[in-house]
Amino acid sequence: MSADDKTTGDEHGDEEEAGRVVSWRAGSVGLAALDTDDAELLLGWRSDPLIAHHMGIWPRPLSAVRERVERYVDDDERDDFLVLLPDGTPVGHVALTGQNMVDGTAEVELMLAPGERGRGLGTAVLDAVVDLAFGELPMYRLTAETHADNAPALAVLTKSGFTREGTSRAACLHRGRRHDIAVFSLLRPEWDELKRPRAWDA
Ligand SMILES: CC(C)(COP(=O)(O)OP(=O)(O)OC[C@H]1O[C@@H](n2cnc3c(N)ncnc32)[C@H](O)[C@@H]1OP(=O)(O)O)[C@@H](O)C(=O)NCCC(=O)NCCS
User: Fold this and answer.
1) pTM, to two decimals
2) What separation in Å is there between the alpha carbon of 156 and the centre of ligand 1?
3) Domain 3-201 belongs to what architecture?
4) Where are the domains of the chain?
5) Average model confidence (pLDDT) across the chain
6) Residue 94 · residue 81 · CB < 8 Å
């Protein structure tokens, strides 16, 4: 079962926002299932040097990104969402990947469009998808990885309650240089202990 199956048409009540069905909402953050026509947006964001640097993705032709998004949509082990502002403006991509319903594990991936960073949105989106994973899916352990020098990502993961488990040394090659990867996790009992309102309280 995917997060999308679980949320679409359920008691949360889907909302239309600028022509998109918002299947999950947390305060001002709306999540809409990613679709193939979003490939152009992803391509633009992935061309941003900061995203290319931190996520290890370099520009590809639109056709290749469309095919990749099609694979995402077909993949039962991942759920991909476009992040929408209240007026429907798409501002990022967040995903729960590698979902294992037996072990209750998944990985979180997040990127915000250039110009949308540094004003608290990253934390709000991460909290929203964490609440989806623990509140609607039987996840027990969420993980996230980022370059060990990605200060905003380290700050956002820590603010959302993740614990740094360690460092995968020299795990990533970028521009001819090896980078350490910081590995984070959040367990269900730790999420239970968080004092912040949940997505459904907002
Ligand atoms: C990582 C990312 C999602 C963070 O989202 P964001 O909206 O920019 O972050 P926020 O505004 O929520 O910032 C959260 C915290 O990070 C801190 N922070 C932001 N930029 C920072 C920087 N350059 N250095 C240190 N701390 C920083 C903020 O001060 C804030 O902490 P505070 O509320 O205690 O002041 C976003 O920057 C992004 O999409 N980056 C490109 C892709 C990427 O790196 N993804 C993660 C890899 S998987």
Assistant:
1) 0.91
2) 6
3) 3-Layer(aba) Sandwich (3.40)
4) 3-201
5) 90
6) yes
